Amino acid sequence: MSPRAVSRVFTKGGAKGVPAAPRAGGAAPPWLLMLLSCGAQFLVVLDATIVSVALPPIATALGFTTSSVGWVVNAYTLAFAGFLLLGGRLADLIGTRAVFLTGLGVFTAASLWCGLATAPWHLVLARAVQGLGGALLMPTTLTIVHLAYADPAGRARALGLWSMVGAVGAAAGTVFGGLLTDSLGWRWVFLVKVPIGVAVLVVAWRALARRPRTDAPREPLDVLGALLVTCGLAALVYGVVAFGEPAGTARGVAFSAAAVVLLALFVARQHRWARSPLMPLRIFGHRAVSAANAVMFCLGIGYLASPVVLSLYLQHVLDYSPSRAGLGFLPTALAVMVGAQVTGWMTTHWGTRRTASLGLSLVTAGFLLLVRLGPDTSFLPTIVVPLLLVGLGAGVAFTPITVAATSSVEPALTGLASGLLNTTRQVSTALGIAVLTAVAGALGGAHGYGVAFLIAGLLAALATAGAATLLPRERG
User: Fold this and answer.
1) What does the pLDDT look like over 59-69, one tens digit per residue?
2) 288 and 404 in contact (C-beta within 8 Å)?
3) pLDDT digits (tens, 9 = 90+) for 194-247
4) CB neighbour list of residue 265: distance below 8 Å, 6 or more residues apart
5) Is 344 helix (H, G, I), strand (E, B) or coil?
6) How far apart are CA 224 and CA 279, in angstroms?
7) Rounded to a whole number, what is the distance in angstroms from the first to the last CA of the chain?
8) Which of 41, 58, 185, 369 is 20 to 30 A from residue 153's alpha carbon, by CA?
9) Is 451:324 a contact under the CB 8 Å cutoff?
10) Is the pTM for the entire model greater than 0.85?
């Protein structure tokens, strides 16, 4: 979408118009802020899935084992999830511009590092640094949307575009990853993001307003809390992965127990010990925040993990090449774009509850149709129809869930609410990949993948029920 097109969508007149937030001297226009926000989010979300179809070539080139290559995805996802709360808190305390630029710089440099990696531990470490950069960057993208559009209707449309870019990035990652792997080699699934990151960084340096200096004392950062939650989440996901490995039960129990202890210490620290909590527990006093995160968790396990699961099915069972498997996700990406085009209007006129429930119902139907996967399933129509339903439903559902999670809190907690929602997305993605791939591997063949999508469908149904009963009725 061109800058002029974005400008027309978000500044055009009408019966009521779409008034933007007031801009201080020299601040960038809303359409440019939206381009920055969406461009940065696209990079971060794309990175979570673009690697999935390149995993077999990466394993061969660098010497990963079958069980360890999954950490190319998990190292990124866990660092991302663990530090998202810190990223959101930093944005609230020291300003959006500083955190945006730092996060994008770290992410871009780590992308170059990944592309040049020569050993398994090089790549896993670089992916973790990428995740840290993404964790700093992602919460600021949503804060920028809230700063650019004060009017509820304009903000709903802006969040619709923001959600569409995120959902399309997740679906398009597999498409781009397959094409790049077959044409230029696996290293380019990382290197392609370097020039894009540099371009966005240059524009952001000029466009984002500097935070006015203040003599007010800054609150201390809860670094220990960030370490506790990051290590706890990493232990939780590793425990789930270990349960699916041969002779991994003891390790699974040990790491799961460690995760419970670490996460309990994190909650206790936030409640009693931290002078400036990383995650003030009062944010869960907002029913909409709690409900939206619960719904996102159930949705994320299935939808956000599905590109990895389906990519493995297409390559391991149907013997697709990486590029052919990647192109198989094109229907999902197109359907997400269609859903995201209408979700802003639906959220404004129907409310968050009805819009999210409709979208999640479509996701549920799509996953349940994928239960029929077999060893010689034809792509048309057995796979493509469910993918269209899943993509359309996700495109509709993400915006009202985001609106519910972020619009009910005071401005000082917007970054935290954004970080919390994105943490939920990433934790559910990591758990989804671990659980669904373990189920598929344990049961074996096409049947295993069918059962994995059955689990995804049941969780999507639970998300639908939660949205229909817990999300607020208010319109966006």
Assistant:
1) 889 988 766 77
2) yes
3) 999 999 999 999 888 886 655 445 667 788 888 898 788 878 877 887 776 777
4) 228, 232
5) helix
6) 12
7) 24
8) 41
9) no
10) no
